[in-house]
Amino acid sequence: MQLLEAKSLRKSYGGVMALRDGNLICKQGKVCGLLGANGSGKSTFSKMISGVVKPDGGEIWFDGERLNVANPQEAKKQGIIMVHQHLSLVPELTIWENMTLGSEPESAMGFMKDQQSREIAQTYLSKFSPELSIDEKVKDLSLAQKQFVEIAKAISQKPKLLILDEPTAPLEQSEVEKLFAVMRELKANHTSIIFISHRLWEIKTICDYVVVFRNGETVGAIDFETEAKDENLIVSMISGKEHRHAKDNASASSAIQSEKMLEVRELMLRKSKDRVSFDIKKGEVVGLGGLQGQGQEELLLVLSGLIQPKQGQISLGGKKLKLRHPKHAVREGMVLVPGDRHKEGLFLQHDVLLNLIFPQFATKKTGFFLNMKKLKAEANEVIGQVNIVPNDPGKVVQYLSGGNQQKVVVGKWLPLSPKVLLLSDPAKGVDIGAKKELYDTVRKLAEQGTSVLLYASDHEELMDICDRVFILFEDQIVDELMPSDYSEQRFVAASLRSAKAAGN
Amino acid sequence: MHKLQHHSLFPIVIIFLIVIAVNAYLQPGFFTFDVFQSNLASFTPLVLASMAQAVVILVGGIDLSLGMAVTLSTVIMAATMNDSPSSVFVGIGLSLVATFAVGALNGITVGYLKLPAIISTFAVSAICYGAALLIMPQPGGYIPSFFYEAYQTNIASILPVSLVIIIIGLVIWGFIQRRKIYRYIYAVGGSEQAAYANGINTKKVKLYAFLISSIFIVLTALVVVSQTATGDANMGRAYTLNSIAAVVIGGISLQGGKGNLIGAVLGALILGFISNIIFFANLSSFYQDLIKGLIIIFALTLSILPTLRKKALA
Amino acid sequence: MSQLQTSEARNPGLTLKSVKNLGNFKVLIAYALAVLIFIAGQIISPGFGEFSNIMNVLNISALLGFIALAQMLVVLSGGEGIDLSVGAMASFGAVMSSQIIGGLDGNLPLAILIVLAVGFLIGCVSGIGISYFKVPPLVMTLAMASVIQGGALVYTNGQPKGMASPLLKELGTGRTAGIPNLVFLWIVVAVIVAVFLTRTKWGKLLYGLGTNRLTTELSGVRTRVVRTVVYGASGAISAISGMMLLSYTGTAFLDIGATYMLPTIIAVVIGGIALTGGLGSYNGTVAGAILLTSLSSILITLNISEGGRQIVYGIILLLLLIAYGRQKTT
What we know:
The complex is a heterotrimer of chains A (504), B (314) and C (330). Chain A is of the alpha/beta class and 504 residues long. Helix content of chain A is 34%, strand content 23%. Chain A has helices spanning 42-49, 72-78, 95-99, 114-125, 143-156, 173-188, 200-206, 231-239, 249-253, 296-303, 326-332, 341-345, 352-357, 372-386, 402-411, 432-447, 459-465, 488-503; strands spanning 2-13, 16-27, 31-36, 57-62, 65-66, 80-83, 161-165, 192-196, 209-214, 217-223, 260-268, 275-281, 285-289, 313-316, 319-321, 334-337, 420-424, 451-455, 468-472, 477-481. Chain B has helices at 2-26, 33-58, 66-80, 85-112, 117-135, 145-152, 161-177, 180-190, 192-197, 202-228, 238-249, 261-280, 286-313; strands spanning 154-155, 159-160. In chain B, helix 2 (33-58) crosses helix 11, helix 3 (66-80) runs antiparallel to helix 4 (85-112) and helix 11 crosses helix 13 (286-313). Chain B is globular and about 55 Å long. Chain C has a single domain, classed as ABC transporter involved in vitamin B12 uptake, BtuC (Orthogonal Bundle). Helices cover 74% and strands 1% of the residues of chain C. Chains B and C meet through helix 5, helix 11 and helix 13 of B and helix 6 and helix 14 of C.
């Protein structure tokens, strides 16, 4: 029996298609695995079902009726609850206060019935952690415990359909087992579950069937009750057709010089006990791949001097660096194109000129009084080099397209002739033409001897421009791919199988 | 949870005991009932004002109009009251209306119009000051003696009226603690986004917080007129900063959502004892502002340090 | 941000010029309103719009303009920047000047030096609390205002002594070619500030810091140091503005600067400086100071009391906030 059917859901953000054709059927009392690479549209899809995002087109049928919800509250009333990652917990409140927040039991006189709230909280929390006191404040909990509270809270509202978005990410093996036990109990009570995870063994263990998304479309489903749980089949469905990259790496490699530029030794990112060590040669373009949030951005931020590592050594051109502030990195010629250009890379309300000349103020290149004529000429030169359109230094940055904004972020470093360029997902929200120009600029810089460390969430980009790619998993380099290894399938397998390995 | 709360109030209680000890050493007859009563009577206004400020800070705002709202309320009472009991009721009634109007204005501008509280309440402060000046350009007015003398008396010759008023304030808060709005104030102050995600009307919660705060502002004003027996448009200014200081010393986070109203009460008492100490230590009164300001800055810095350390670790 | 972009997509005509003009537009409106006030004033009370009265108003505007400069720098530096101690600092500067000068021209250089240094140091204390200990600017400067007030009391023993010297008095009350000397000084200051903001590294850093602290930090700038210096500068400018107040009144009193506190914020907001920081120019603040002073001048002419004027100020500030001070919901 089917509980929910979504038919050809569509959504685009500012001209970019996030979801082209999303289809899914939820069967009553079954666990549906939702699979797909980063940006395949699966999270947009689940947000539509839970009322967070409004579809541009398509239909959702729920419990025999057309579903039309404007916000998560309405979806909740219908019986659809999505568990987000700690968005709905108030850290300063206790577990039990959080679990009934917004739906506190009240007496006829309008007084809260705290005893009843505590009982509800205790009942559902003890499914996961009987040893955890409901009087703990949420801020004192571990990530896994917060996740449990979040899920317990959702279950306490007795949903018909529960959507779990990567619930196992912060969980350890034994905790995952506990979650699965609860999910089986829910199944037995005819609750349907949509389960999103990147760990294949989890999918194979708990799901009754899987639906795969790729490039904003549903590409297929496998019913584990009738078909085999073929891991290779799943990986190839996620990654698309097997295709090798016909990139002429000969020309790319020619830029690489034998001289080592950046040496990183035993670097500790975040709290993980694992260390990162690697070298980058002069003129080499090295990529950082893997699932999102595996420490790629943290690595770049450490190298840029914004966050200080607990341990480890960084040397540039043989010189040991002490990076206590971005200033130190900038002065040594190691510069960052950050992941969020609006928040970290631009002065949106100011003109291109100010944005382009700004980094020079941190170095000793400029005196107290500025030679605006000279700076303007330099800015114009940069505008030409990276091809910012329109080529007007007086244009306010917030009115440029995403691609041109990103060119400004890259371009502002050019006058400093950087030795190492760090890029964090620079092509996010950038159109194809600008993306190509952006990466052309990066390659040109590499040919001139700049070393590049690039994180991109899109494997294609890494394959297109990198001489080597490190695959990161949980703050650790778990694999290194050379151009001869490049294929979408290889990337997905490297990212997922390592996930599987660590899960076991 | 009760253990934790005691834990978080622990440093404040220690400071509280220290200032009491120093005060007792300097002030003759500290432990006599009369001195206790007169100390309490002089601390009560700030205690109530701090409770008012605490509610707004808990919801994640700040009220810079508090001092002037108290002033406006006292000026209205002093301007309307005469020896007839009915005029006393009219005075209290009018100041209730004015204070709640100010609270509603703050709540609407901060909650519904999403103006930054620090500046919009500052603007409201100017409006209150102006209104107070219009009502009473020169200090004056009249407070009937039966009204202000009542404040100095003891019920059953054992319970000072000032203490009774603090208890009334706490009972009102105790009532609110059992309503949903209490938890929502903490939720909105702690994480507006999470509160919203749980379907809580965050705008309304902010408005209600300012209105609840108005209750305590009226109580403050009642006590202040009983003490001074006149109206003066420049009288209440200091309550704004002092109430913020008391709240911060009392362990309530300026980010909102964290702390306890009892902390604000203790913070206000600590500030009161410090004023006493400065007075009885025979320091020139000129030093009062300076030392108070320095202590407030010291307390602010101390109260914010732990959160900084936590951020550094994360 | 995506909203911005979509609205851009709908209005491709909205470009750089319109953003800059939006600031200029506010400034033009401020000047136009000031002119209107003088015309209306002349009709209601003949003589109000005469040259000498206009010059009087400009003279007082200059005093507000100097203190508002201190406020503007802090607001421009962003991070909810606001300085509620400018009034107290100006008072302190005035009484310090009065006591050091003691009516003698020869003491002027020393007074200027000490007033600037003390103002800067006290401002830096606020700055350190704000940028290193993360105390909200409003609370920090409010507390500092109390400290400064207390400091002034201790320093003067409750009764400021001394007075302005003849030269200082000439600066504050004298006129050259019918134009007050303070107005000339104001023009010079405005030009210096304009050059500083548009032609120097520190001016650009200030705009950068105010617009986006993280981008500035990632560009290699020690933003906490810059922010501390900004509050120091605000302190120094407020304190020396106190000396200008003294030049106008001749003798100082303890809360001589207090009434300027709220008007500095309004002048800055009228002048098109975003309270979120990073945008605007001193030109706008000058316009704001003139508009506000002419407004209060006409309110006085209309016999509206201090109370009525405070209400008008409060309402104007609220309306301005509603018009362009809304918090961005993120």
